[in-house]
Amino acid sequence: MRIGILTSGGDCPGLNAVIRGAVLKSSRFPGNEFVGFKYGWRGVVNADLMHLDRQTVRGLSKQGGTILGSSRTNPFEGPCGGPENISRVLKENRIDAILAVGGEGTLTAARRLAEAGLPVVGVPKTIDNDLAATDYSFGFNTAVEIATEAVDRIRTTAESHQRCIVVEVMGRNAGWIALHAGMAAGAHAILIPEQPRSIAQICEWVNSVRHRGRAPVIVVAEGFVLEGMTEAHSHKGLDAFERPRLGGIADILAPMIEAHTGIESRATTLGFAQRGGVPSAYDRVLATRLGMAAVDLVVQEQWGSMVALRGTKIVSVSIEEATHKPKLVPVQRYEEAAFLFG
């Protein structure tokens, strides 16, 4: 069996560990061969391939990014897109299955291709941790560690100048990174997409912190919606899947806080730093396990399925289940954290 693997969408720590785990597991099955599609779905529609073997993936689990490259290409668009053209690419290159590693956008495309009859298996990847069918996705743990360290560092400069600092982290629909990093770093308020809050409430928390002689530090997810806003702040256009490119809510909040409280306020956006660098030990192990388990699904020809983490076990679920709706932060989890605000 000849398997093609791709990494699509935003890069995240652990992608190379998935590739390594899949290739090494596949080598245990006689006659199996791996190739990589370069730059995500773009490599599929353009038949841009590279050979993968044990030598290629040696020592790869600790390396950040992805050796295959990535993109936000929509495989249903363009002259080479669509199930018929992709099926032709697979046939011409003797590829028996696609192993798609990605988040909601990538897996939605994988589901549509599987529904069209193509042999596709999914591996969940998102630092946002917002895929419903898996307890955790690799990359999340690393992103939280990076964000936590950043907030720890920012707190010292905030205290030195007695400023309020608003730290923006990633999180389009779900505030898992903000929630975990904010709690770990002892943020004085955490703002997430699932829980709109008024500027009056935010400033109440800020003033409470200042009255205790501290410098307020707020962690906000990029998808947070302030009460009165109709949608998340976006000024960067749309991505390949017609979704707004978010970012900049911290720059909106900081001057508002300063105007309402008189406290000098600054905004810091962590951005792509959360996705870069080496993966944590946890993410290396999880990604490796998912990559190995995905090969089992390919061998079993469980097309349209995806590997997932449930508790400590790796299980098989349908891609449709994973992409049906995002996994949001429950109200109880946010209320638990809110006891620490102010």
Can you give a write-up of this model?
This protein is of the alpha/beta class and 342 residues long. The protein folds into 2 domains: 2-138 and 277-323, Rossmann fold (3-Layer(aba) Sandwich); 140-274, 3-Layer(aba) Sandwich (Rossmann fold). It has helices at 15-26, 41-45, 83-92, 104-115, 140-161, 176-185, 199-211, 249-261, 281-299, 319-323, 331-338; strands at residues 2-7, 33-37, 49-52, 97-102, 120-124, 164-169, 189-191, 217-221, 234-238, 244-246, 265-269, 305-310, 313-318. The strands form 4 sheets. It has a 5-stranded mixed β-sheet with strand order 3-2-1-4-5, with helices on both faces. Helix 7 crosses helix 8 (249-261). The chain is elongated, with a radius of gyration of 21 Å. It starts with a strand and ends with a helix.
- Oligomeric state of this protein: single chain
In the CATH hierarchy, what is the class of the largest domain?
Answer: Alpha Beta
Low-confidence stretches: none
Largest sheet: 5 strands, mixed
Q: Give me the CATH architecture of the largest domain, please.
A: 3-Layer(aba) Sandwich
Order of helices and strands: EHEHEHEHEHEHEHEEEHEHEEHH
**Residues in β-strands, percent:** 15-25%
Overall form: elongated
